[in-house]
Design brief:
Rossmann fold, 8-stranded mixed β-sheet, two-stranded antiparallel ribbon, 10 strands
Length: about 270
């Protein structure tokens, strides 16, 4: 029996198959980059998307009715082989929205006109970073200003917000809670009122791609209640789990890499 406040070591797709239905209130995660890091290599882009969809189908199964999935993701640039080649940019956020909203809860990618329910797309939030923190892409354009070769510095990532399909309104979900739990869970003054969140990125010697705790805090506060169970199927060094614990939520993390898994246990405990 899977219980909250646990981090598991294994492949997310296989581990999630062992979970009972309807046990998770919120999933917040940042999937592995497509072939952009040494720990994330796939046969091709379609294989990557299919793998992600299978995992999020399992997340759908274990998520309670009307509850949320938030994915932190961005397009990925595959570096060019040489100056004689072009680089390739993969529109991962847009492909994921297209596929997850047209996916059977337990199946593979379906024809766009399938009438089987998938995730309901709710919001796209922009995580904006300081320009000084990102790679400079417009150095050549800055010098010669020739049209057609403009490349902006990429200072944003996406938070894609989905809700498990239901015909019920949010009020129905709220009625599942005691009044004192709702009161304790209320978001304090100073919350973010727009869809652009300005948050500084973080780095760690223990993992090449982590998101800041402030990002996790906002998502967990805005999309869950005290006492809820928060899942991260790509938990890395345990940032989501650590923040969920601090905010009085239960947590379940799944991490494939042994080194990251071992560190996450210490990170969350401390």
């Amino acid at each position: 029996m899977i219980t909250p406040n646990t981090i598991l070591n294994g492949d997310s797709e296989e581990v999630l198959k062992t979970f009972p239905r309807d046990m998770v209130d919120l999933t917040f995660c940042s999937p592995p980059y497509y072939n952009a890091r040494e720990y994330s290599q796939y046969e091709d882009y379609d294989s990557y998307l299919q793998t992600m969809c299978r995992i999020f189908n399992q997340v759908y199964r274990v998520t309670k009715e009307g509850r949320f999935l938030v994915i932190n993701v961005s397009p990925v640039i595959e570096p060019r082989l040489s100056r004689a080649h072009q680089s390739k940019r993969y529109p991962i956020p847009f492909d994921l929205v297209y596929m997850l909203t047209r996916t059977k809860p337990l199946g593979f990618y379906q024809h766009p006109y399938s009438n089987m329910p998938g995730w309901d797309f709710i919001e796209d939030i922009i995580w904006e970073k300081p320009e000084s923190s990102v790679k400079n892409r417009n150095g050549q354009f800055f010098q010669h200003r020739k049209p057609l070769s403009y490349k902006p510095n990429i200072v944003h990532e996406y938070l894609l917000v989905f809700r498990k399909h239901t015909d019920r309104l949010i009020d129905w979900n709220l009625r599942q809670y005691r009044s004192d739990t709702i009161e304790e869970s209320k978001v304090e003054d100073g919350y973010e009122k727009t869809s652009i969140w300005e948050i500084h990125p973080k780095s760690s010697k223990h993992h090449p791609a982590i998101f800041p705790e402030e990002l996790s805090e906002r998502v967990i506060k805005y999309y869950s209640m005290v006492g809820d169970t928060v899942l991260d199927p790509f938990s890395g060094i345990g940032t989501t789990c650590k923040v969920a614990k601090k905010l009085k939520r239960g947590y379940i993390g799944i991490e494939l890499n042994n080194e990251y898994y071992e560190y996450s246990l210490k990170n969350v405990e401390n």
